[in-house]
Specification:
By secondary structure, the chain is mainly α. The chain has a single domain, classed as Methane Monooxygenase Hydroxylase, Chain G, domain 1. The chain is 74% helix and 0% strand. Helix 1 packs antiparallel against helix 3 and helix 1 packs parallel to helix 5. The two termini are 34 Å apart. About 3% of the residues have low confidence.
Length: 144
């Protein structure tokens, strides 16, 4: 069962990596609606990976409980250790891909914030009713 769960977890990670890479291309091409449309499916994939990871953890714990005298490296077969290594590599790749994605998001956000500040500088805000400064409405909508 452990091999099956590891394969499913690796598949989930690869799907997340692929979607994040398409998100990076969508950001570069300013296809923001496509980005927002994929949020739910990405959340489902993350949830799916977490489920498989928990199953992997439970399987390893039960194997360790059944064989308390064995160390983890002796407890797992070579193929299981290889799959754990593959999963670690996919996690590292996902982290790097997410880091690149985050840099692009921050760059785009900074650009739009700077543009807004140029168009609507804070110094131009004048006191409104009762001498209170009116807060301007958010021009950008942020979806997570």
């Amino acid at each position: 069962m452990l091999v099956h769960y590891l394969n499913l977890a690796i598949e989930s990670l690869q799907n997340l990596i692929d979607i994040t890479k398409t998100d990076i291309e969508d950001i570069k091409q300013a296809k923001h609606e496509k980005l927002f449309g994929k949020v739910k499916s990405k959340e489902e994939m993350v949830s799916s990976f977490e489920k498989y990871k928990n199953l992997i953890d439970a399987e390893i714990v039960s194997m360790a409980a059944a064989n308390p005298s064995l160390e983890l490296k002796d407890l797992l077969s070579e193929s299981q250790r290889d799959l754990l290594g593959d999963m670690r590599e996919k996690l590292t790749e996902l982290k790097a891909t997410n880091r690149h994605y985050a840099k692009l998001v921050i760059a785009v956000s900074s650009f739009f914030n700077g543009l807004i500040e140029q168009m609507l500088p804070k110094d131009d805000q004048k006191p409104g009713y009762d001498g209170l400064i009116q807060r301007r409405a958010s021009i950008l909508e942020i979806k997570a």
